[in-house]
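Appendix B: complex inputs.
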Amino acid sequence: MTKSAPTPILSTDEAIRKLRGTVHAKAKNFYAMYSSILGGIVTDPALMVVPLDDHMVHRGHGVFDTATLANGMLYQLDQHIERLVRSAEMARIPLPFPPQKLRQIVIETAAAGGRRDGSVRYWLSAGPGGFGLGSAECVGSAFYVVIFSPEAYPASYYTEGIRVVTSTVPIKPPFFARVKSTNYLPNVMVVLEAKDRGADNGIFVDERGMIAESSNMNVAFVTKDRVLRHPPFDAILSGITIQRMLQLARRLVERGELREIRVAEISVAEGREAQEILLVGSSIKVAPVVEWDAKPIGDGRPGPIAKRLLEMWYEDVQKATDQLVAVPYPGA
Ligand SMILES: Cc1ncc(COP(=O)(O)O)c(C=O)c1O
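Resulting structure:
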């Protein structure tokens, strides 16, 4: 075997220079990062790094959340911060700052990013301090925030609909499904499997044949007799978007477009009989499923309730002042 060139040992200056060179084309969509390790915000993507000895990196001892930035407003930020704090408690990660300070840092990082639309993702981690397992060795928990533009879903998801498959990826046990931890391996694999099978996404089903959720979104159903149904939240992530949509959908009940809203277990067999299936989450908003395991749902076209709820989502991010936090952009 021929020996390739030796692995270089870099000086600090060389390594920093090379770090600059690692900035790839997609990093133009990363606008600002806060790191409690640095104690401040950076806007150079080359500096948007996390130490390898952070237990979130090498042990997955971290939790995260994502909120939407729309029209210069953070949508449902308080609910997303509350869920982050709940996840941190469940994962036994002490807060490095009180929740109010975490909130302030998120808002100030969004302001430093200068963008009016995008995503805000933030992590609480057991923190750096060694390569062991237990977090007792960590020097203190860490907080990171990034402001970025996510890759948009294809427009056809909304106009033509989404195709899903029943995933064969093992579902997370209820405790781990309820913590929004950095262990998203099953969530990643559900999408990879779906793409391999010629679909767009997958649905997790539990061992009793009950519907759980999708990769990073919840799954709701509209029955033929116009009942909006959703599984209970004891074994899946409590989605902030679906919680809001279940609340807003009451208007559709008042107008007679829906008969009832019901949160209770849904079997796969019941789900397949639905008139509409909806994927709901911060990234997807509300999108119609038109095909499940290669069979049409309803008439195989996007349905009216998916459309109505998506309109309500857009209206909410424009007008629901109690759900919006203004970003104080410099010079605004
Ligand atoms: C597994 C999972 N389920 C559901 C959701 C939807 O939650 P939300 O509406 O808060 O984005 C997400 C996204 O965070 C998720 O990752």
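Residues 66, 187, 213, 216-218, 237, 239-242, 281-282 surround pyridoxal-5'-phosphate (CB under 6 Å).
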